[in-house]
């Protein structure tokens, strides 16, 4: 079960994203259980999305969302995870420790190092369009197009 990086979750949720079509096809295949085992979403992706919403980088109804908007956004997102049977991969003490080592070794960003660490501890695979993961020898990046 590879980890799906936030870039694809974001792309799926936002039609204007350059990877929206590929992400939509990927999640549709997941919904139809055509991808086995089912890829997982990192728990950190939920926090990252919330921060992007709270900061106004992600808009709701064309504006910086209120806390009520954020709650509704996540209500829909959580329902989608239930419908699609997508599990959430938890953040562990070990994954936080490993992310710091990965950041130091590969000069990855905070979030990217955490996703790389979770992938390494999980099954060494991450589904992402972000080529930064190609630098991390301990994991394999899977192009989302390979599933669609």
The name of the CATH topology is Rossmann fold
Question: Mind telling me which CATH architecture this is?
Answer: 3-Layer(aba) Sandwich
The top level CATH class name: Alpha Beta
Secondary structure category: alpha/beta
Global shape: globular
Question: What proportion of the residues form beta strands (DSSP E)?
Answer: 5-15%
| Helical content band | 40-55%
Strand order of the largest sheet: 3-2-1-4-5
**Count of individual domains:** 1
Count of strand segments? 5
> Which sheet architecture does the biggest sheet show?
5 strands, parallel
Low-pLDDT residue intervals, each spanning 5 or more residues: none
Mean pLDDT: 93
> What's the CATH superfamily, by name?
5'-nuclease
Whole-angstrom Rg:
15 Å
Count of DSSP H/I helices: 6
Description:
The chain is of the alpha/beta class and 148 residues long. It has one domain (3-147): Rossmann fold (3-Layer(aba) Sandwich), CATH 3.40.50. It has 6 helices and 5 strands.
């Amino acid at each position: 079960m590879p980890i799906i990086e936030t870039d694809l979750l974001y792309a799926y949720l936002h039609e204007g994203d350059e990877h929206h079509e590929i992400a939509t096809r990927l999640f549709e295949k997941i919904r139809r259980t055509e991808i086995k085992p089912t890829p997982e979403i990192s728990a950190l992706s939920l926090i990252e999305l919330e921060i992007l919403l709270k900061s106004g980088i992600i808009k709701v109804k064309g504006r910086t969302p209120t806390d009520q908007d954020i709650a509704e956004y996540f209500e829909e997102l959580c329902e989608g995870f239930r419908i699609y049977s997508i599990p959430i991969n938890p953040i562990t003490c070990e994954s936080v420790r490993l992310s710091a080592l990965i950041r130091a070794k590969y000069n990855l960003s905070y979030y990217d190092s955490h996703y790389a660490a979770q992938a390494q501890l999980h099954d060494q695979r991450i589904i992402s369009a972000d080529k930064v993961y190609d630098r991390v020898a301990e994991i394999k990046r899977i192009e989302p197009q390979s599933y669609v």
